[in-house]
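Self-study notes.
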Amino acid sequence: MDNRIYGYARVSSREQNEDRQIEALKNFGVSTENIIVDKCSGKDTEREGYQYLKRQILRSGDTLVIKELDRLSRNKNDIKHELEYFKDKGVRIKILDIPTTLTDFPSEQMWVMDMINAILIEVLGSIAENERNKIRSRQREGITAAKKKNIKFGRPKVAVPDNWNDISEQVKAKELTVSQAIKILNISRSSYYRMQNSQI
């Protein structure tokens, strides 16, 4: 059976666009139907598309192409672990932003490529991890600054309806069901129970 080539792209959120990565993968020769995309953080490797690609699709002799090293993860240890995993499974990794990974060395010179790539991956993995740490630090600083300005996070609390007490008493007396009560109060079921638990 012929060895196959797959591509993997990742963006951190649904608002971000993966087109740049997909275009680069296609230009390298990866067919569109063989490109797997995840839209979630690179804090670890527990991503649906990536795990499916690893566990169900790739086999020995296949090639996995990614645009940048941090598409695998932004954690240096995870990056090393994943690269070792693919090496043990006989899957070739090509990283478009690391040209030496794209070169097909003669087998007797493979140690040269491995050495060069190990150095590059160590450096770029550290950069990716450092970038993630900076993002997290900026997020914490932003949250702290926002809290000082009394900016609230999360969904705004639903105002307690004026007829809450009357309706909740009728529910307690079993004159109304909860379903009937939330329709009268015009609130969601979760809001009803939250107000009830708050003993409002």
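Second protein, same conventions, sequence then structure:
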Amino acid sequence: MARLLAIDFGRKRCGIAVTDPLQIAANGLETVRTCDLVKFVKDYCAREAVEAIVVGLPTTMRGQASESQQWLRPAMARLQQAMPQMPIVYYDERFTSALAHKAMLDGGLKKTARQDKALVDRISAAIILNDYLSSRTRNTI
């Protein structure tokens, strides 16, 4: 099996998370500037076997496209153009930032660490990917 890679997309930076090769659990990997996203993902996929990319899809509480999608869609089109064979899967990312902050609080991180937006982005990407893994398990049972 190959890893799954997740992207928590943002206009300035993106949180990246990956699974282990058996796709059991996800961990935050890196936070990259959005302008460097395609290069980072291509370089990572050249070093590691990646089965698919899971991208957090920002939606409103009613499940409609949020304003953020106007930046996400063109960026993912550039990524798909750079890596045409790589499947890109969109997954609902509602509440991931709030869950990341809660995880940081529960983990006992100090206030200065909780204000680190790059860390929040990595944790959010890991939450997206773990939720995606859980949804696949539920759908196969």
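Instructor comment on the second fold: Helices lie at 37-47, 69-82, 96-106, 111-114, 117-140.
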